[in-house]
Design goal:
The complex is a heterodimer. By secondary structure, chain A is mainly alpha-helical. Chain A is built from 16 helices and no strands. The chains are: A mainly alpha, B alpha+beta.
Chain lengths: 373, 361
């Protein structure tokens, strides 16, 4: 490390720390280096976009480019900065580290959000100002209202089920003799995509006419108990929404369980033992000691699953396409934008999602402040 | 003492039941994926588990020229063709049914423990294949069928996911260091922006970004999804890496500075090696997220193209081929292979990443 810094110093030492010459050298080399970087990366981009490579080869090229490119970019920027007079090079130092990411975030998240905000007040094509028309549509149109209602049900029922089941399983696992294996079973679905999970559950809800063999588990149980086979996802409105929610519960309960499990492990054994000695029942211990202790985790899990279920798309889209009264906000968003090409209403729906999440954002900021200072 | 043991027994049983319920859906998928197309729709998958079913014990040969339109006499009783097709219950809880209707063979079946025994790898072969594949069916006939091209989608998924993980991870580590160990004005603002963006619904940004990509001429290319996944994943990855990097002991930085090291050198030689476990955890989270994502890939890659990734390909198969269960089941299994392998091999990191990713919206 010493030798490297030595050569750097020697190089810079050729010029005095202050003065026009130093600035001239620094600015000119910065421009040259930035231009070179720009040229090289744009050429690589063009090559990648040209599509002349096989996907696998392309991935390899991209990885090398991603790692080597980011490294060389940072390295050359670092060199640029070191050319400036000491005081300035200290001032510019952090830009090397946070500059690229911040650029990306502003370009691809912050500015687009503002543009979406603007589009939500414009018409279908994004040309004429229509005031609050799009928002009026979002809150009054029949299918939109249904989608909003469904999303509220998803959030409430889905989240409550995941959190309570996760908590129950975490407690049971903690007291069982095979905790680790049990957790694997419950947690595994989280590695599965919603689309694959939909195939799995389509199989459970499969329906064949009365005379045929039922290959869907639910209908097999139903007919074995003397019922008629039912088309769970289409004819059973509004219950089909709950059958779709089962997929979310199946996938996200494991996440809640793992979070709770970790939190429960931190509850001091002494307080539980002391309560037991005092003759408190297990249920009382649970509500009086464990729950207050893991309150923060419960809040965190609840918010993340709430956000997750608020934006659920894949399961509904793949299972029913939002038909049969199963539309939710995210499927309506997709339909408005890409099926009806209406950027106004689509943007209004997106803004609605953002507004719904604002309380969580405020909570996160406050929490960050607490930890920070 | 005994009541305590009893309690534990109940806990074990209830938990076992829950685990069983949780596992049933996956088990059904796994078993079905190895069954032929006909078997999937005619034999429920749970017949692959031991169960009581009618098994032929005795075959009665009727005269081969017997007319099926007339009464059929067996053991002095009269049956109709339709009855025998559905099976008739006779004394001793036995079932009388056609064994081979054309050869006029009637089977007498008895309830016995049995298990479905016909499995095949053809589904996988067909679902992976690109153009056409030769499948040998139950009677030994060979036929050509159209493949589903999932092999290609798998490669595409890799091409999207690996850079979609590495690029934001590298950027996030740099940013985390900049936030944690360099001094500059406006740090609080930058940090607040990242925290705000943590739970940002991507829907808010998707369409304007898509339009930018169209005007840059990169819409529908891998590059566009890499950028999208990088940007959308960046706040979380940065936040996670920041929490790790800032907890590194201050003393190592101080002694490095005293030795005259620059920030860049410290970053490359100290921070990166010390951050590998953390990067692995959150990297696995991002990998899983991108691999399983449907909406972002759908919007930025566009449907039905040559570069469809696994979830898109699967979703198209569900839409287009409705009830082609043998392909859907094997296809789903293929799409889960990689995330599940990572899950089982690197469980510790996987769980850590998931917990760290809990703030993601």
């Amino acid at each position: 490390m010493k030798s490297a810094s030595g050569t750097d110093k020697k190089l810079i030492g050729l010029f005095p720390d202050k003065g026009v010459l130093r600035w001239l050298v620094a600015v000119i080399s910065s421009i040259l280096i930035l231009a070179l970087n720009f040229f090289v990366h744009v050429s690589i981009l063009k090559f990648i976009v040209s599509g002349s490579l096989q996907p696998l080869l392309l991935a390899i090229v991209a990885i090398i480019w991603g790692v080597v490119g980011v490294y060389s970019l940072h390295h050359s920027l670092n060199f640029c900065v070191s050319l400036y007079p000491y005081e300035w090079s200290q001032r510019l130092q952090h830009l090397i580290f946070i500059g690229p990411a911040i650029t990306l975030l502003i370009w691809l998240l912050l500015l687009p959000a503002l543009r979406t905000f603007r589009l939500s007040f414009l018409d279908k094509l994004g040309e004429t100002f229509v005031g609050l028309e799009n928002y009026k549509y979002v809150f009054t149109e029949r299918t939109m209202v249904l989608a909003l209602q469904n999303t509220v049900i998803w959030v409430i029922v889905g989240t409550l089920s995941c959190v309570s089941l996760g908590l129950l399983i975490a407690i049971l696992a903690d007291r069982s003799s095979y905790e680790k294996i049990a957790k694997i079973f419950i947690f595994m679905p989280i590695a599965v995509s919603f689309v694959a999970a939909s195939v799995i559950w389509k199989f459970i809800y499969a329906y064949s006419p009365t005379s045929d063999t039922q290959i869907g588990l639910l209908n097999a149980i139903n007919t074995a108990m003397g019922g008629e086979p039912k088309a769970w996802l289409t004819m059973m409105q509004p219950w089909n929404n709950y059958f779709l929610m089962a997929i979310l519960v199946w996938m996200m309960t494991g996440f809640a369980m793992v979070m709770f499990s970790a939190a429960i492990k931190n509850v001091p054994d002494e307080s539980i033992e002391a309560a037991r000695v005092d003759g408190a029942s297990e249920i009382k211990i649970f509500f009086a000691i464990i729950i207050p202790y893991i309150k923060k985790t419960i809040l965190a899990v609840t918010t993340s699953i709430t956000i997750f279920s608020m934006r659920v798309f894949d399961a509904v889209w793949v299972m029913t396409g939002g038909q049969y009264g199963t539309d939710v906000i995210a499927t309506k968003f997709y339909k408005e934008y890409f099926t009806f090409n209406n950027s106004g209403t689509g943007s209004a729906i997106a803004m609605l999602l953002l507004v719904a999440i604002i309380p969580v954002i405020i909570m996160n900021i406050n929490q960050g402040k607490e930890e920070e200072y | 003492m005994t009541s305590k043991n009893k309690g534990k027994l109940i806990v074990n049983i209830v938990l076992g039941l829950i685990c069983f319920i949780w596992f049933i859906p996956s088990l059904g998928l796994l078993i079905s994926s190895f069954k032929s197309a006909d078997d999937i729709t005619n034999v429920p998958w749970w017949n692959s588990l031991p169960h009581k079913a009618y098994v032929t014990n005795e075959v009665i040969q009727l005269p081969e020229d017997l007319s099926l339109k007339e009464d059929i006499v067996i053991d002095g009783r009269v049956y109709q063709d339709a009855q025998l097709r559905n099976g008739v219950k006779i004394e001793g809880d036995r079932l009388l049914t056609w064994e081979n209707r054309n050869k006029r063979q009637v089977g007498i079946q008895e309830k016995e423990w049995s298990i479905h025994k016909n499995y095949t790898l053809d589904n996988y072969e067909q679902v992976i294949a690109g153009r056409s594949v030769t499948i040998t069916d139950g009677e030994g006939n060979e036929r050509k069928v159209q493949g589903s091209g999932l092999g290609k989608a798998f490669v595409n998924s890799l091409a999207v996911t690996v850079p979609g993980t590495i690029i934001p991870l590298v950027l996030a580590t740099f940013t985390a260091y900049g936030l944690a160990w360099t001094k500059f004005k406006g740090k609080k603002i930058v940090f607040s922006i990242i925290v705000i963006l943590l739970v940002f619904p991507t829907q808010v940004a998707m369409v304007p970004v898509y339009r930018d990509f169209v005007s840059l001429g990169i819409a529908g290319t891998y590059l566009s999804v890499w950028l999208a996944h990088a940007a959308f994943g960046l706040p979380l990855l940065t936040f996670f890496m920041y929490n790790h990097v800032r907890q590194l002991p201050k003393s190592i930085f101080e002694s490095a500075f005293l030795d005259g090291a620059t920030h860049f050198m410290i970053f490359m030689r100290l921070v990166v090696p010390l951050s590998i476990p953390a990067a692995l955890s959150i990297g696995i989270f991002q990998f899983n997220w991108v691999w399983n994502d449907y909406l972002i890939n759908l919007i930025f890659l566009g449907g039905m193209g040559d570069n469809e990734v696994l979830p898109m390909r699967l979703a198209t198969m569900i839409g287009a081929r409705g009830e082609n269960w043998h392909l859907l089941t094997s296809g789903s299994i293929i799409s889960m292979l990689l995330p599940l392998t990572i899950f089982f091999l690197m469980q510790k990191y996987f769980v850590k990443g998931m917990l760290g990713g809990s703030v993601k919206g």
